[in-house]
Fold:
Amino acid sequence: MSDVLDVCNRAADLAPAVARLTGETKNRALRAMAAALEDRAAGLIERNAEDVERARADGTSQTLIDRLTLTDSRIAGMSAGLRIVADQDDPVGQVVEGWKRPNGLLVERVRAPLGVVAVIYEARPNVTADVAGLCLKSGNAALLRGSSTATASNQAIVKVLQEAATAEGVPADAIQLVPGTSRESALELMQAKGLVDLLVPRGGKELIKSIEDNATVPFIIDGDGNCHVYVDASADPQMATDIILNAKTQRPSVCNAAETLVVHNEIAGKWLGGALDRLAEKGVEIRGDERVKALWPDAVDATEDDWGTEYLDLVLAVKVVDSFDEAVSHVNRYGTSNAEAIVTGDLAAARRFTSEVDSGSVFVNASTRFSDGGEFGYGAEIGISTQKLHARGPMGLHALTSERYVVWGEGQIRE
Amino acid sequence: MSDVLDVCNRAADLAPAVARLTGETKNRALRAMAAALEDRAAGLIERNAEDVERARADGTSQTLIDRLTLTDSRIAGMSAGLRIVADQDDPVGQVVEGWKRPNGLLVERVRAPLGVVAVIYEARPNVTADVAGLCLKSGNAALLRGSSTATASNQAIVKVLQEAATAEGVPADAIQLVPGTSRESALELMQAKGLVDLLVPRGGKELIKSIEDNATVPFIIDGDGNCHVYVDASADPQMATDIILNAKTQRPSVCNAAETLVVHNEIAGKWLGGALDRLAEKGVEIRGDERVKALWPDAVDATEDDWGTEYLDLVLAVKVVDSFDEAVSHVNRYGTSNAEAIVTGDLAAARRFTSEVDSGSVFVNASTRFSDGGEFGYGAEIGISTQKLHARGPMGLHALTSERYVVWGEGQIRE
Structure:
């Protein structure tokens, strides 16, 4: 058996034992994991330095090196996340709904773990702790498949987490690193049918394509983010400026950053020029349609491609629309179902936007940057689902469970 | 554009309009559909007779002809189902959960329709009404792909449903029959990516295999049913007999019929012989292990294959186990996650069985035959999910929706 299938089999074998852990055991383990990361921070940073040095030698970009680098404050963040996960209600066994049938049967819908959850992710060592914590709390065995760039960091983190969890009665293999970082080993994981119950690919378009083409295990697509901010006719101008500045520039490289600004023509004349000045001051390149250029001549001509592009950079496509309906159509046509925001003072517009815009998260008068498990209060996230089945938007504990039926009778048979 | 892609495109185009229908409109339409089926029953039965006659001429089995045949009482059943669907709460817009974040953001998880739901099914015309009703109530556009054997019946039923729904303000294409019954047209439907949001194949192993191999649209696997009844040491003997008789013989050809009886050795001696006599009287062939044969010598030798076989016939595999744990292991090893039952008087055994048996539906002291949307009170079902992602067990309205986030702010930005 290959190394990859070996860890998959071990995870599947002990998944029932993980599912049966009590909330108390899981919470004690999560708090012990949080403390252990802090206690052993110096050692983790030392191991992480090996990865960082190798990445530098390989000419890795500064952005990626920033994401890879562990610091005391990042480790504190990982620990804080684990403690928030511990503070949440245990989803396992939760009775979501229950009702009595006329024949006396009591039908309950009850949350249960999925079994084995695997995550493929990039060189962000904090994801290792996030995924391990959410999987443990939701009663799932975790398979972590990090990037080769972060191998030393991930090995060190998993070792710390495993030791802390095992001491509290969690089976050692409940949290496992998937060996290997080759394309072949990723394929093995994608095709471990019957062993892996959910695979979440947290990566770029190439990984998603590979999953769609090759995976035989159930998966959830994560993270495309062509996010929109729509500034309605009734928007508060200052609030609109604050939100688009934040959504575009606070961290342009992530999936919940805004990529397109849609503006109602009734507010464009008095507001758009000033707002674009502010964005330009922050170094944002503006690509606009004719009407944008008329109001702000420095804009580059937007092409059809711009409406569908996730720049992940300091570039913003800007479009002026004649109506609310046109705005909703544009967002639904080009959005990727991650996060869309409306800035408005009009209740009817807010209510229509929230129900008609078909996205995992819709924000009224708030930045798209809040589309995030931590910001929603989950302590961490397993990813952001941009599909419709099973879960949409930031995936916390509930997304790592599904609901099954438990039916209680006193001898009922069917006539 | 092919005929299949044409109906898929039409469904996708109007899905937002179906999603926005009010509960009142949907309920009026469902009741009008129910009434129209009854009013036009004679005409439906006439069209159905064409299908039945053709099926007879083709030498179709009596079981399949029974399923195909419409009668006044079956049509009344379809109408009753539609009325029960109308009586249920509108799932669309339901706020499943909501909480306030420290920064004042109100995060809500809200049910939304999936969009376009397609079902491929066999020659059971009642499924046409069931699927149409559930899809409409849950705000989804329905694509119905019935069997060639039932073409005339399905066309007639859809026409009646469409006319009744349209008169109440539902878009005409909200309920569409997918044209063609060829393998190629099924493939087109399976690969209508971006147009079909959920495909449910209600059919045999061949259809499921084809979906798994070819589908590029999201799907949910329906219906394998290697269901178990476990008779615990503490079972009430009469109740155990009643339940296994019902689960095995009330309708052996369906997926929630029991296929294996697992018996604790402490009750086997005093109970099993008599129970197997009763089953044999009903024409059930018994395949047992050594210990079963010792108690009931007429049993045929069970082979390893028997434990994994869904007979869908008057055959029952029987196994005696030494412990509760052995019973749970057997059920989890060979079960298909459809429906499993325990007969027991022991609370601890009941609680352990419900949490440790990993199945879509687990029954305590009730027949597996209740694993059914109608029996759960849903009025109908879209299928029975035997997978873990999105939905498990009988799929009613909630399984045709997913939860998305609506977040309300007053200008919040991320620091």
